[in-house]
Amino acid sequence: MSKVIRVRYGKGVLKPLSSVDLEEGKEYRVIVGEDIDELIKKYRGVLGKSSVKEFRELEEEAQTQ
Fold first, then answer.
1. Tens-digit pLDDT profile for residues 37-55
2. Torsions phi, psi of 38, nearest 5?
3. Sequence ranges of the domains in the chain
4. pLDDT in the model for residue 47
5. pTM above 0.85, yes or no
6. Which of 1, 41, 42, 59 shows the smallest number of beta carbons within 10 Å?
C-alpha cells in the first residue's frame, strides 16, 4: 500500500515529519515532489474555491495512485 509521508531534507538525510509505520531494514521507493504549500500557490483557483485541506487531500490521493 502506498502512502504519502512528509519529510525534511538535511545533511544528506530525509527525516519524516511524523511517525511512520515502516519495516526496519526494508527498502522503499521514494518519490520526491514539490512542497505542498508551493503547489497550493501555483494552482490556487484552478479547482474553484477549494480549501487548503481539500487541496492537501487531493494531492495525497494523487500521490498514492
1. 777 777 777 767 777 787 7
2. -70, -40
3. 34-65
4. 65
5. no
6. 1
Question: Rounded to 5 degrees, what are φ and ψ at 52?
Answer: -60, -40
Higher pLDDT pick, 1 / 62 = 62
Question: Is the dihedral angle over the CA atoms 53, 59, 64, 65 positive or is it negative?
Answer: positive
HEC secondary structure over the chain? CCCCCCEEEECCEEEECCCCCCCCCCCCCCCCCCCHHHHHHHHCCCCCCCCHHHHHHHHHHHHHC
Instruction: State the Cα–Cα distance between residues 13 and 31, nearest whole angstrom.
Output: 14
Residue 24: its pLDDT value, please? Answer: 93
Give CA 38 to chain center in angstroms. 12
